[in-house]
Amino acid sequence: MRLRLTRPRFLRSGKATAGALILLFFIVFAVIGPWVAPYSPDATGTSVVAGPSSAHWFGTDQLGRDIYSQLLVGTRGVVVVGFAAGAIATALSLLIGIASGYLPGRGGEALNVLSNVFLVLPALPLLIIITSATPKNGGWIVVLVIGLTSWAWNARLLRAQTLSLRRRDYVEAARATGESTWRIVGFEILPNLTAIIASGFVGTVVFTVLLEITLAFVGINVSEWNWGTVLYWAQSQDALAQNAWWWFVPAGLAIALLGTGLALLNFGIDEFVNPRLRSGGQARLRTRSGRKLRMRVGFTPVLVEDALVVEGETL
């Protein structure tokens, strides 16, 4: 008997595979970066503002520090802060967004008002004030502040979608059979929000990464080294005027590549959870008798007669 190794359905999408590989690349270097860096990012040398060479792959800065080592060490701060803040914001948006859309009466309205209040909070000025006053453990301060202030937009989206889903046939059927609220939310509503949740998480991670880099770029060091710190020194020392392209181009490419990987991963998730985007944008929906059927939005189709088949798989 021969065993066949197949990729999970999610990774059969080229976009998802490419995004996952790019993200895995940065995660690996976030873990091993400080160990494989050829130099300490703070170690000075005699070769000042030197271009790429065999000794310094990405050149050196104004103090002779190795830029390649700075990028490797700084990857951990970027990835950890981005994903930690994204996880906090996503959890809050799930809790408040779905609850405000599903719960009737004043409870849902109160949570909606809370979302509107946090929606107008200025995250960047708040971060600048807090991180300036707390120089130590600044990375975790950024995680908490961004996570606690950037959930409102996704919560609004989840609330709107929950308001649309709570009156669907399968939700009404589950409610009529006496299912608990947590069971209805967890098994009937939450699976239909997967694309919005994934998109919100990816967007928050990208926002967090850019915000952390922006803080470092304007001179507020939220961690010892990150990609924004490299860009800060390049800007403050007029790297562009010195034609020292190696000082800022690698950091900029790393930011762009990480954002591209997260966006591709988001597109792949959207294709996986949305049948209308599969098979080149056309999902093949039919019944066993061959009758064509239009798919309802979500994972739980309601069909009175015949079995539903999506791309050859019986549901």
Unreliable segments of 5+ consecutive residues? 279-285, 292-315
- Radius of gyration, in angstroms, nearest whole number: 24 Å
**Shape assignment:** elongated
How would you sum up the major sheet? 3 strands, antiparallel
| Global mean pLDDT | 78
CA(first)-CA(last) distance: 29 Å
- Total number of distinct structural domains: 2
CATH superfamily of the largest domain: MetI-like
What percentage of residues falls in helices of 4 or more residues?
55-70%
**SS content category:** mainly alpha
How is the largest sheet built, in terms of strand order?
A: 1-2-3
Q: In CATH terms, what is the fold-level topology of the largest domain?
A: MetI-like fold
- How many strand segments? 3
CATH class of the largest domain, anyone?
A: Mainly Alpha
Named CATH architecture of the largest domain: Orthogonal Bundle
The string of secondary-structure elements, in order, is HHHHHHHHHHHHEEE
Annotation field: number of helices: 12
Strand proportion, as a percent range, falls in under 5%
